[in-house]
What does this fold into?
Amino acid sequence: MLPANLSIQPRLVRFLRLRQLSDAVAWTFRVLLPIMKGFNHLGEANRVPLELKATINLPKTAFPMKANLPQNEPKILARWEQTGIYERIRQARKGSPTYILHDGPPYTSGPIHLGTALNKCLKDFIVKSKTMAGFDAPYVPGWDCHGLPIEIKVDKELGGKKLQMRPTDVRAECRKYAQKFLDLQRQQFKRIGVFGRFDRPYATMNPQYESVVLSTFFSFYENGFVYKGLRAVYWCMHDETALAEAEVEYEDHTSPTVWVKYALLDDPAKIDPALAGKKVSTIIWTTTPWTLPASMAVAFHPDEDYVALEAGGEVYIVASKLAGDVAEKCKLEDPRELAHFPGRKMERLNFQHPFLDRKILGVLADYVTMDTGTGVVHTAPSHGAEDFATGVKYGLDATSHVDEKGILRDGLPEYNGQYVFKANPIIIELLRKHGALLHSDKLVHSYPHCWRCHNPVIFRATEQWFISMETPMPGGAGGRGSEKDTLRTRTLEEIKHVKWDPSWGEERLSNMIATRPDWCISRQRVWGVPIAVFLCESCGKPLNDSAINRKVVELFARSGADSWFTTEPDTIVEEGMKCPHCAGTKFEKETDIFDVWLESGASYLALIADEPAYPWPSDLYLEGGDQYRGWFQSSLLCAMGTHATPPYKGVVTPGWTLDEKGQALSKSRGNDVDPVDIASRLGGEVVRLWVASVDFREDVVGSEALMHRIAENYRKIRNTFRYVLGNLGDFNPDADAVPFESMEALDQYMMRQTCAFAADVRSSYDEFAFHKIYHRLNHFCIVDLSAFYFDILKDRLYISAPKSPGRRSAQTAIWRIGETLVRLLAPIMSFTSEEVWDYLPKTAGRAESVHLALFPTAAEILGDAKTIAGATPGAGSADDKTGEDWTTLRIVRDEVLKVLEDARNNKLIGTGLEAQVTVAAADPVYSVLLRHASQLRYLFIISAVNLVQAAGNGTGGVRVEVKKADGLKCERCWNYSTHVGEDKKYPTVCERCSAVLEELEAS
Ligand SMILES: [Zn+2]
Ligand SMILES: [Zn+2]
Ligand SMILES: [Zn+2]
It folds into this structure.
């Protein structure tokens, strides 16, 4: 628009070298407000006669430049606590539309870290911004208190003592441990400025919560979703419990691999006439030799091609695709192919177990793959999920002879009593002794490990409680989906109606729900909510009686889940109650507890039980990506089982918190950034600003250096507020505010800029794009305010008569800017906004805390809804025209400042006020400059501007010429003027200042 065609033609009459200004001033805006140095520097200020200095409206405010956040934030926290800010917000928003962000419960086993701080601050930004947008947005923080990690830690502390303790005593110890960290985390979250119902959080170990977990289970149970049965489930031998899919992580593990011969017992001619009379075997391949004692079958793929290879006088049956590899590994010499046949030929043939007196059945299975091994799979129904399913199909024995500690029982003396992995070499030796071992090797592969203790896990068939994914949904509840829907299909349908942010969440969760096995909800531990079901003493079957179920739920609500351990069955099961299966009359208590994911999955159900006015579903869940297999999923399933709809309308997922090299933060790595430590050294506000600065949907970087950069930025924002407050000392909005239409053009322009800024910030809050707010804020404070508007305003604010319309116009503008900024930033900069709020002028009806206020509307920012209805940015052509003018003026200004900078560097001038500038421009720029001619010298912060119309139309650039200003320097305002000395009464000041002094004297 304005190609630079600039030249400097200095016409220096006399070069006056000004003394270098020192930075040693009482307080200074430094780079932001360079002009102020002059007024405050002793040497320079002394040159302004004292009586003149007193007539300058220097900024004055008690708002400190140095924030001292670590010292001052606790004072603000104490005030919030004292005034009950959270409760007062609830009162203020009562009756407004609700917005419920439901908190995901962190685990109570340690202090908070940067990831939890990010999580809680994001939630706080959302809750506070919704609150200030006018919603009733309560926030009830929650904690996940039960579960293995705590029980393990308490086990360690108790040591051998635990064996002598009653379960309720162990639970009391666990409760103490959980409560300790709940209290710590609560205090830490509050320290970084998070608002919420902290005095009454939800905790999964609260009696009321425990009762909801149980009633959630009973909803599933009474609607036929639940079964108890023998299943091969992931089992941690270290923690002695079943694990859910979500509790298993894959890590590298070295396993032995064996190629084992299973001799055919039946007549081989049944497979193919070519095998008649031959000694035939098949070869299996496994990485878990310890499961061979449980081997019940060999599985073949029904449709794949198998080959019979003759070598060394024996015949071996393996998959054709793997025959070459097998022959090589097992050293089959000169193998000769006798016959080919599909795997289905092998069904129900009998083989010999390699070292046990057991017939092994030939079975068919689609999961047999042709990528590794032999294409023949040894099948131990007690030690594999697929094996178990095959076992059910063929009626195989699935009894586990591996106990909860992973010890082999009821076996041969060689391996009996051995830990499974220790049994591997023993069993390999046994195979060799029986001539069944054809080859052995080692393999490093991805193997399931316990996510708590990181030990390798095994599959083990045990009696467990399950929620079946294939159960038909009752009565077509929920309105969506079809009559034939199962828990799985209906859940998949409902996922589509949730807003996933980022959008990949939908596919991720759908894939998990589509493929997940039935939900194993039982655990064999103590610290959790008991599966409070009575079992028939004679047949072992559970009693499912809704009246009894209600009684137990009420008992839990009254006395907590501990009561299950102390209540005798006959106090709940009435006399005369008969087992519906065997008519037995004696009942015992189930001792398993629930999977903790069922507990946390019921959290919103527990919350609405406590706050019945809260809507179903909630508006938002926000947690890390690991919760797709955890809390997002279990919450969804619990909601489907009770309400047949998801518990959330939207789900947001932040990325991971990493260091600058992309590594996870950890104390042991030494790259840890502790948010509580940052709060104590730099301020909780710095932690909050850091959270706002990152694009949380990606992985985010946290580091000490970054926190310091954020703290530096914080100071810039703080100085913006300081400028505002410093210039409002004598401003009473009720009496002094200038209506928009009477404001100076520059002030009107900045009001519109502020409206545009507010609109951008509001829409960024709506899309949870806090990093956009952070960057927009920095730009607005630094570029629009400090370097442009505030810089220009200084002359008007300081030099004008205090009550002059121009100064009042400026004060009105910066007051409104301050009000706008403080409210828009309150959700993020909760501490500083509250601090600034106290310093801003009080007006009638103004809320006591910024957190009780609403976001400003455009009409509020501009000052009057009636007269300004059409004055919002882009609303009218007149505004657009003004906007264009200012865009042009700012571009010309930037060019002038560049030329002045060059002139300064060439020592042609000292300060800009020593300069006058000639600007030559063609239309349309010339016309714009002409329209604002009287303001140009103030815009450029120089003593005079001469405007020259250049030839051409729209093509020529702008020529800027700097020379020394004419006249003398005014002792009061430092502008140069040819009129200095004309006023005999004030001979050292310019005509503008003498008028001000005249006015001051008269008043
Ligand atoms: Zn474990
Ligand atoms: Zn019975
Ligand atoms: Zn002056």
Observations:
- DSSP finds 33 helices and 31 strands in the chain.
- Residues 236, 238-239, 450, 452-453, 455 surround zinc ion (ligand 1) (CB under 6 Å).
